[in-house]
Automatic annotation (TrEMBL):
Residues 16-25 have a biased composition (Basic residues). GO terms for cellular component: endoplasmic reticulum membrane. It comes from Nelumbo nucifera. Involved in inositol deacylation of GPI-anchored proteins which plays important roles in the quality control and ER-associated degradation of GPI-anchored proteins. The keyword Nucleotidyltransferase does not apply. Belongs to the GPI inositol-deacylase family. Its EC number is 3.1.-.-. Residues 132-176 form the GPI inositol-deacylase PGAP1-like alpha/beta domain. Keywords: Endoplasmic reticulum, Hydrolase, Membrane, Protein transport, Transport. This is GPI inositol-deacylase. The keyword Endoplasmic reticulum applies. GO terms for biological process: protein transport.
Length: 232
């Protein structure tokens, strides 16, 4: 299955204006693949397949339990998942950065402020490696979890990671020198942009960034089907 083809080929979603009942997404590449396997069209119910495990990195202020529905959806498509164990209270640890003069200059560095988060991600990765049984892993980063995944790979290595899929992640720092523009990361995102590997799609490490607007009732069905095919 060619990744470039999957990303570049058009996909038809229901119009959000009319809010029609959810319909199965039809993609000519996937239809051809299914037909070659003896199935003419996408089945109404997900068909579990053996996929590499995925580690979900929560976004800023999120709790691990916020991703239960996504886990259930991916499981229906055969994608085992592990969510990094993060609670909302844990994010208060970032307040330690207030004691660093770099915070007020907007030049804050990720470590040691984010060491606690990177440790939780590494624990989840080690758990997922057991599920992988020698396969590579996928990382799914939501919001800030996407660029934190890039930081994790830079600090801990990426020998066992073959895909980073980000959901609504800002990969570039805000522009400097514009009135009213404030870097809410206080320099963290700028550090990632400067010193971490660029989010560039390669055969060895695939990057997929998803951002957009979905009708709420359709989001997890559409997202689950799309993610499951990207994670195979």
């Amino acid at each position: 299955m060619a990744w470039a083809t999957l990303i570049s080929m058009p996909t038809t979603f229901p119009s959000p204006r009319r809010r029609p009942p959810p319909q199965p997404i039809k993609h000519r590449h996937f239809i051809a693949t299914l037909a070659a396997a003896g199935t003419e069209e996408k089945p109404a119910q997900p068909t579990p397949v053996n996929c590499r495990p995925a580690v979900i990195l929560p976004g800023l202020g999120n709790n691990s339990s916020d991703y239960q529905k996504l886990q259930v959806t991916l499981k229906e498509y055969g994608v085992p998942t592990v969510v990094a164990k993060v609670s909302r209270v844990d994010w208060l640890r970032n307040a330690a950065g207030l004691l660093d003069p770099n915070y007020w200059r907007g030049t804050l560095r990720p470590r040691p402020v984010l060491d606690w988060y990177l440790k939780r991600v590494d624990e989840a990765v080690q758990e997922a490696r057991i599920l992988a049984e020698g396969q590579s892993l996928s990382l799914i980063g939501h919001s800030a979890g996407g660029w934190l995944a890039r930081l994790y790979m830079e600090e801990f290595g990426l020998s066992n990671i073959s895909l980073l899929l980000t959901l609504g992640t800002p990969h570039l720092p805000p522009p400097k020198g514009l009135p009213g523009v404030i870097d809410q990361t206080r320099g963290l995102l700028d550090y990632v942009d400067r010193y971490c590997a660029k989010a560039i799609y390669t055969p060895d490490l695939k990057y997929v960034c998803i951002a957009g607007r979905f009708v709420v009732r359709q989001m997890f069905g559409v997202m689950g089907w799309f993610l499951s095919h990207q994670l195979i």
